[in-house]
Every structure is written in structure tokens, then in C-alpha cells.
Amino acid sequence: GETYVTTHKKTDKTCQIHSSNEEPSGDNDMRALACRLAKIGTWSHDIQTGTTVWNDEAFQIYELDTGKTPDFEEFRALYGDETAAHYKSVIQRVTSEKKPFTCECTLTTPRGNTKWLRVFCEPVIENGEVSRVNGVIQDITALELARQHASSRETILDAIFQVLPDYLFLFDRNGSIQDYRARKDSELYRPPEQFI
């Protein structure tokens, strides 16, 4: 199937769609491509007005149609009190400390999907005060699921060693030892590569 890259021009806020078979023609196309491939959304929150704007990929990550960025109350209605409170606390922290901040969090989208996000944000300081907080969100769901899978496999292996004798041998069909392991490497008389 053919995929498309969507970009916004800053001047008129209209969408232009380019076939992915075409070479990206400018910096905006390349940024949009990078954001889409890396699952990175950008956002900016104006402290004075309380308004926030997202790029297209942020809408994709939050599983919303591209358009108007939800205000705080709409955000809370979509994602729940806990997620909204976390968002608000991140903005407050960056504003009060006047330092960048990074965290990982989860949210459940309006479609019922759980996503793991990595959030980076930094203050924009004008005349000694934070006027805006700019940030990036990255959908790290696939990475987190892979971590959980690896952790569960390690837990299973640890459980096997808890109920087995001190050593585990792996034999081939001919009865030759292919590998062996102990509960701890320090319990091995010789490393498997020397013994086998």
C-alpha cells in the first residue's frame, strides 16, 4: 500500500499530502517524515493564554483526528483525571523550576488503547519568566511491550531454576551435551564453551 506524509505549512496552516514515493521537498517534509517514523509528536503550551498546539503526529499518538488541540477540560474528559493531573503537574514543574524535564507515563486513549509515552519538555524563558513550555512526546509502546516480554521470559527462566537441580543440560538427539547452565555462573565448574 501507498503511505502518505502529512505536513503543515506555518504560514497558512493548510495540509499538504505528499506520496511517500516522492522525495521530501523541504525541511518541513523531512521533519514530518522523521516525526511519523519515530512516532514523535511535538507540542507547545502558552503559559499566559493556557492554549496548547500539537503537530499531526501528536494527534496520531493521542488517537484523535487532526484539528483543534483539546483544551485542558477536553483533555481531562478524553484521558481521565489522573492523566490530566500528570500533564498539569509537568507544566507546573517546568514553569516553576525553569528547567527541562523528562518522564515516562501511560495513558488510555479514547479508543481504549493503552500507550506508553516518553515526554520531554523545556521552558521558553522571556524576561526571566517562563512564557511557554515546548515539548515532545514519543510513543514508546512497542519498546515497553518488548521490555515486559523480555522480563517475563527472564522471570520464567528464573522460576525454572528455582525448581530444578543445580544444573540444566541441553542434549541433542545423539545425546551430546549442547549447552549447560547453573543457577549462577559462579556455580559452574567450567564455562560451557570450555566444557563443551
What would you note in describing this structure?
The chain is α+β, with helices and mostly antiparallel strands. Helices cover 36% and strands 32% of the residues. The protein contains six helices and nine strands, in the order E-E-H-E-E-H-H-H-E-E-E-H-E-E-H. The strands form three sheets. The chain has a five-stranded antiparallel sheet with strand order 4-3-7-6-5, with helices on both faces. Strand 5 and strand 6 (114-126) form a beta hairpin. The chain is elongated and about 75 Å long. Mean pLDDT is 77; it is low at 1-21.
Name the descriptors.
9 strands; five-stranded antiparallel beta sheet; 196 residues; 6 helices; 36% helix; alpha+beta; disordered N terminus
SSE blueprint and pairings:
Elements: E1 4-8, E2 15-19, H1 27-38, E3 40-46, E4 52-54, H2 56-61, H3 72-79, H4 81-97, E5 101-108, E6 114-126, E7 129-139, H5 141-163, E8 167-171, E9 177-182, H6 192-195
Antiparallel strand pairs: 1-2, 3-4, 3-7, 5-6, 6-7, 8-9
Helix pairs in contact: 3-4
